[in-house]
Structure prediction request, 575 residues.
Amino acid sequence: MRSRSLISTLLFYLLLLIIFVYLIFPFYWAIVSSLKSPNELFETPVRYWPAHPRWRNYVDVFTQQPFGRNLLNSTIVAGMTTFLSLVVGSTAAYALGRFRFAGKHTIFYAVLSVAMFPQISVLGGMFVLVRSLGVYNTWWALILPYMIFTLPFTIWVLTSFIREIPRELEEAAFVDGASPLQVLRIVLLPLMAPGLVTAGLLAFIQAWNEFLFALTFTVDNSARTVPVAIALFSGASQYELPWAQIMAASVIVTVPLIVLVLIFQQRLVSGLTAGAVKG
Amino acid sequence: MTKKGRLSARRARTAWVFLLPSLLVLLLVAAYPLWRTLQLSFFQVSILQFPLKPSWVGLDNYKSLLADPYWWISLKNTAFFTIISVILETVLGLGIALVVNTRFSGRGLMRTAMLVPWAIPTVVSAQMWRWMYNDVYGVINDLLMRVHLIAHPLAWLATSRLALPSIIAVDVWKTTPFMALLLLAGLQSIPDELYEAATVDGASAWQQFWRITLPLLKPALLVALIFRTLDALRVFDVIYVMTGTNPTTMSMSVYARQQLVDFGALGYGSAVSMGIFLIIAIFAAAYLVSLRVEID
Prediction:
């Protein structure tokens, strides 16, 4: 065992500190800016901590902007997308993870390639689809298109989870005369719970953060989600962006995501790497 | 038919039934829109009239695309964005992964901090940085002037020479930690015994990195690299939020959406989309072939 000298230990922790500050500083800055008054916000040289921190901006986001509605839209859209992806994706993952049949590889590759689709390449056709279904500027104008990236990803993550579950329990259930759907529902789903949480969380974050479709398939606040709202926040005049409000809104949407990450970080990392590293 | 044969035929049928809902959804939300986009790219059609009134123009949209200076500018911007951001993210990500892979107290905190930029919506991080880049009240100018790296405030996003590099810096901030996490998983799968044996044999840390770490990390590195490339090629959010449709920073996706939505040119915009699709399909195919993703 080599013992590190004091200096190299100090240098190491300094390096860690630099990385940590680099990762966190923009978020810190959003918090600081969101607590400033307009006067303080537009003051030079800038202050690294507000002289008179205040919550007004957080209130204004809900009273001067339709941000509450945007949050509701985002929650419903991301929630529904996640729910549908898990329901539809878990049976597909069961088929891909457990059954042998001709054409399985083709299907798997097809699903995988949909996951790599650039969203922009379907934007025109998706617009036509959304208009023909009569759902333009509603929640469904986002829920349906979001399945294009959440569903393949869910199938992928769940398939890799199912393959790790031992087969014995299912076989016992089959011997007892259970149907495949019963086996999936009663035997496998409880065992898949960690996989469902991981896949669901990843799908939720993807849907929550999506911007291109949300920007294109909504025109007003009846279905507009948080990312679009934050991108389009406008102030009293065209040239004056309400930066303090934008930062307050940014903090509001980021905090729940950070809490999720804190609680589920181990699962998130394993889910992401199951997809990427194992292939 | 034998009993076993009948059983496997039945299981195959069950498998297809289980796949059916997903396949139908993907047909509706992936195959159909892609097919429609391809179809529309051969028409001249306005997005403003619905139902659509398309008129057939054959390959005209594609001919215009090849002669369109803005298409080539957006392609050049996207290539620049992709190459620089992917290189920086890989090198920095590997560096951070190596640092975090050693044992130290507070490692859990560090890993959480690494997930924060990834979890923040791109739009939000773009707005945060846009405010930090502000030419008069921005913290970046203030910091750089305090340490005397610059003499006077710069208009980061309004100077054509600086705009795209500034946007790349945001992408690097957001994606490097994610890259590091993917590589960290790869690093942790390398057995400690290899390093112990190498140390006994007197190999320096530098030699160990080149002879053990890098070769064994290659698969993880390759996957991360290709994923990032595919992602960077379709970049939209960060550029759209920071500089809109300004040609100095416009990416291919920003240009396609401008044509489709802002100019209402559903036909020509679809041709731009198909151009992007083709470029990314080549990279995606290379990925599938080079990794031979196995599922059994």
